[in-house]
Design goal:
Blueprint: E1 2-9, H1 13-24, E2 29-33, H2 39-42, E3 46-47, E4 50-51, E5 56-57, H3 61-79, E6 84-85, E7 89-92, H4 96-105, E8 131-134, E9 138-140, H5 142-155, E10 159-161, E11 169-170, E12 173-174, E13 177-184, E14 202-213, E15 222-224, E16 228-233, E17 236-240, H6 254-267, E18 272-284, E19 291-294, E20 301-305, H7 311-328
Helix pairs in contact: 1-7, 3-7
The structure holds flavin-adenine dinucleotide.
Protein name: FAD-binding oxidoreductase
InterPro entries: FAD-dep_OxRdtase, FAD/NAD-bd_sf
């Protein structure tokens, strides 16, 4: 028998950021990965303090960005790499009204730190009204982040490449492992979890393209009009992701590929080739807040889910809240507590 403080089920942002808290606090654990393509692994990696439709900010944005920067530096200390790319988002304006709105908001206390008042006009792309830069925005190097942490876990015997079988759990034992706590971080696959399959997550399917651009950008920005465009390597760029809250099948939806081609063609007027189309299912919640907490009967069984909106910022920030709750009895914020659904 093996004894551990924690079992983590899942391998997306929820699981990896929670694993980081355990590493930081020297807790023993194993993490189960089913080796499937998660929403996290197809994500763009954008770290954005704004809602770019209306130029507003959101709950805890400044605190979450600060906490992510600190966390990524901590992860660098044991994996040897910094995964945060400091390339700012440039929002391509649709018209003069948007510029006026942006200018007005740069004078508000809440937004002046995030909206750069100096506009730019960029080459290569169509941007007759220019672009506005989002201060403190950045991008996670998604592939490197997952490769870096999984290699570290593997080297420390903490990664189990196996789908967790719910029928094999008995009280605080799973096969040959005794655990103090178990944290389920399965994203949309939580629907197969008999302990938490009643949580209210809605699948929001997102597609993105990898495209080869015939004319490379001469700047290092993340461009945003309908979707995000940024360089991955050489002349290959990421463009996406779309949203679709309807229950869809596990295949590429051609109409979403078309939506992306149309979106990109609106501001990139040169030739491009599609290299790949990918998709994933975001675990979203009606109130757009994560879901944290424990099972009413099995009190050492925890859920960490609902990261469909701002998976990176929320996933990073609330991993510490959950850790403090489990280890030190810190109360969960009412906004994210699973108990908010018991009304
Ligand atoms: C196209 C697209 C672009 C996105 N872009 C961004 C972005 O730029 N910024 C941002 O912050 N967010 C973005 N997101 C959202 C974000 O990626 C997700 O909301 C978030 O990753 C959800 O993380 P998660 O860990 O909860 O779930 P997931 O990423 O779905 O991970 C859950 C994992 O658990 C595994 N698992 C499930 N059950 C088991 C089991 N029984 N045993 C073992 N393993 C199991 C699954 O295989 C899966 O790999 C994007 C999403 C999509 C689809």
């Amino acid at each position: 028998m093996k004894n551990v403080d924690y079992i983590i089920v899942g391998d997306g942002y929820a699981a990896y950021f929670f694993a980081h808290q355990l590493i930081l606090h020297q807790k023993s654990f194993v993490l189960f990965s089913a080796n499937k393509k998660s929403a996290s692994r197809v994500s763009a990696g954008i770290v954005n303090p704004l809602v770019l439709k209306k130029f507003t900010t959101f709950w805890l944005a400044a605190e979450q960005i600060e906490f992510l920067t600190k966390t990524i530096a901590e992860i660098e200390s044991y994996t040897g790499k910094n995964y945060l790319i400091n390339e700012r988002i440039h929002r391509i304006f649709h018209d003069e009204n948007e510029k006026t709105l942006w200018c007005g908001k740069t004078e508000t206390e809440e937004l002046k730190g995030f909206l750069n008042p100096a506009f730019e006009t960029l080459e290569i792309i169509k941007n007759p009204f220019g672009t506005g830069e989002v201060n403190h925005s950045a991008r996670l190097d998604v592939n490197a982040f997952f490769e870096g942490i999984s290699s570290y876990l593997e080297a420390n015997d903490r990664l189990i490449h196996e789908e967790f079988a719910y029928t094999k759990i008995q009280d605080s034992t799973y096969k040959n492992i005794n655990f103090k706590n178990i944290v389920f971080c399965e994203g949309m696959a939580v629907r197969a979890n008999p302990f938490f399959n009643d949580i209210q997550v809605i699948a929001n399917k997102g597609h993105h393209l990898k495209v080869k651009l015939s004319q490379k950008m001469n700047h290092h920005y993340t461009l945003k009009k309908k979707h995000f465009l940024f360089p991955l390597n050489n002349d290959v760029y990421y463009y996406g992701g779309t949203y679709d809250p309807n229950e869809r099948e596990n295949v590429i939806d051609d109409f979403k590929t078309e939506e992306l081609i149309t979106g990109l063609s609106e501001f990139y007027l040169h030739d491009f080739e599609i290299e790949e189309v990918n998709y994933g299912f975001r675990p979203t919640v009606k109130d757009r807040r994560p879901i944290l907490g424990n099972h009413p009967e099995h009190q050492n069984y925890y859920i960490y889910n609902g990261l469909g909106a701002r998976g990176i910022l929320n996933g990073c920030y609330f991993s510490k809240e959950l850790y403090e709750h489990i280890e030190n009895g810190k109360l969960l914020m009412a906004e994210v507590d699973i108990k908010r659904f018991n009304k």
